[in-house]
Amino acid sequence: MSFLPLARPTIGDAELEGQARALRSGRLVLGPENEAFEAELCRITGAAHAVAVSSGTAALVAALRALELPPGSEVLVPAFTFPAPAHAVVSLGLDVVPVDVAPDTWNLDATSVARAIGPRTRGVIVVDQFGVPVDVVALGLPSEVRVVEDAACALGAELGGIASGRAGALGCLSFHPRKIVTTGEGGAVLTDDAALAAQVRAIRHHGQSAPGEFVLAGLNLRLGEAAAAVGRAQLARLPELLEHRALLAAAYVAALAAAGLAERAPVQAAPPGARRAWQTFALLLPEKPTRAEVIDRLRAHGIEAGPATYALHRIGSFAKRPRFDAATLPVADRLHDRSLALPLFFGMTESDVTRVVAELAAVLA
Ligand SMILES: Cc1ncc(COP(=O)(O)O)c(C=O)c1O
Question: What is the pLDDT of residues 174-220, one digit of tens each?
């Protein structure tokens, strides 16, 4: 039986041809491939500006830095997330405040946000966890709190007619191989604000607003032309990629229900009216057997599974810091131990889904 990995990128002839075209052109950075890739991201999301960068993490650093939050500012971050947003805050010398997530959507919880806001709160990074768009309006944030939306996993998702990545002042995308579309490494910042877009462009390009005009102490966060060309080919098939993932997710939901697992192993939910991007298919395991036992059993049957992601207070970069405390972050703490991601990738079949659910049902029986 074939091995089913958690994820697998979809690279075809168009991506290979795009890369060759870019390399043969002799223009390897900041050229027509980047421009066309950015224009296509604007068309897809409706954003006025898109700035391609070297990774999703680079997008977060550039977006947050463009806001020029005063020293000593606190930035709220969901306590259950891949740590890149929290690490971006630390890299700018700002203070991370972890906030618990909702038990159904695994996105920021409005009550916990209200409790975490203090006199130094100036920003929040909201995360569209695994492609589930966060309801930013429902968070009821005060106007002085600037919002960066981490839509790393959510290209193609939307809520209330607003594309993921457009719910805050700036939005960040990732094109890592586990994301909806990939450029190898890559990312982008979306914004409707021309001044913020210009800041991000300068931060990306050694602080230059034009060749030789160094307006700030920037970095090199550029995306290469070959990677942008791959991204263009990926975006051309975005509807197909999203549709296939949604089909597989629906098959998972139906198979879990048929196996009597809908309540014992609930799937991460989306807010009403959301179109989610299904970057990851994840559920919450019951307390017994342990997740390690489930993962081992699936692996023995040729199926890769793993923790969906991490609780910040449980990883080395933040453990034991004040405010990073299991007692105040109970949902993130539980998800850290019991969330499970299952295989989901373009080219996987509905019978693969049936096989995964059958093994899962057997180990949970
Ligand atoms: C929610 C989230 N934000 C940011 C990142 C960082 O993206 P990248 O790996 O492209 O730097 C990831 C990556 O896994 C992520 O899941």
Answer: 999 999 999 999 999 999 999 999 999 999 999 999 999 999 999 99
Nearest CA to ligand 1 atom 14: 82
Helices (H), the chain: 13-25, 32-45, 56-66, 84-91, 110-116, 194-204, 225-236, 238-258, 291-300, 330-338, 350-364
Q: What would the pLDDT profile of 48-97 be if each residue is shown by its tens digit?
A: 999 999 999 999 999 999 999 999 999 999 999 999 999 999 999 999 99
Q: What topology does CATH give the domain 13-236?
A: Aspartate Aminotransferase; domain 2 (3.40.640)
Quote the CA–CA distance of 260 and 150 in Å, as a whole number.
34
Kindly name the residue from 122, 166, 179, 204 that is annotated as catalytic.
179
Q: What is the distance in A from the centroid of ligand 1 to the CA of 365? A: 34
361 CA to middle of ligand 1, Å?
A: 31
275 - beta bridge partners?
158
Nearest CA to ligand 1 atom 7: 56
- CA distances to 210, 289, 293, 348 from 1, in Å: 56, 25, 21, 13
For the domain covering 238-364, report its CATH number: 3.90.1150.10
Please check whether residue 44 is in contact with residue 163, taking contact to mean a CB–CB distance below 8 angstroms. yes
Residue to mutate (ligand 1; options 57, 89, 183; most atoms within 8 A of CB): 57
Query: Considering the entire predicted model, what is its pTM?
Result: 0.98
Q: Are 71 and 101 in contact (CB under 8 A)?
A: no
Residue ranges of domains in the chain: 13-236, 238-364
Question: Could you confirm whether 179 is annotated as catalytic?
Answer: yes
CB-based pocket (< 6 A), ligand 1: 55-57, 81-82, 84-85, 127, 150, 152-153, 174, 176, 187
CA 245 / ligand 1 centre spacing (Å): 19
pLDDT for 262-313, tens place per residue? 999 999 999 999 999 999 999 999 999 999 999 999 999 999 999 999 999 9
